[in-house]
Design goal:
The protein has 126 residues and is mainly beta. The chain contains no helices and eleven strands. The strands form two sheets. Strands 2, 4, 5, 6, 9, 10 and 11 form a seven-stranded mixed sheet that branches. Strands 1-3-8-7 form a four-stranded antiparallel sheet, with no helix packed on it.
Length: 126
């Protein structure tokens, strides 16, 4: 069982940056595709981006392209989401998710992911 824990959320002014991390109960992410989703109050959960384990291809939602970057890190910080040029509309709870990479499922769809973290709040203010 993969248990995911997000960290790095907080408060930031518009135009600023934050870096979110996702860790998995002391394990590596070998073989898992990693996704980030977010949910703002009163809205549906939205695809932010994903990192494909095999080959390292990244995918991004239209609203964050060019501003957010997903990358692999070190064993203590295996996957992180770097968010630049933050906007008010980026305010949301951000969730890390994992799916087994061998399954050919779409990267941007919530139901593709079997494992989820509890989420971390990101608040962008003017």
């Amino acid at each position: 069982q993969v248990q995911l824990v997000e960290s790095g959320g907080g408060w930031v002014q518009a135009g600023g940056s934050l870096r979110l991390s996702c860790a998995a109960n002391g394990r590596t992410f070998s073989g898992y595709d990693m996704g980030w989703f977010r949910q703002a109050p009163g809205k549906e959960r939205e695809f932010v981006g994903a990192l494909q384990w095999s080959g390292g291809t990244t995918y991004y939602g239209d609203s964050v392209k060019g501003r957010f970057t997903i990358a692999r890190g070190n064993p203590k910080d295996p996957v992180h989401l770097k968010m630049n040029s933050l906007k008010l509309e980026d305010t949301a709870v951000y969730y890390c998710a994992a799916k087994w990479g061998a399954l050919d499922q779409p990267m941007g769809v919530m139901t593709s992911y079997a494992y989820w973290g509890q989420g971390t709040q990101v608040t962008v203010s003017s």
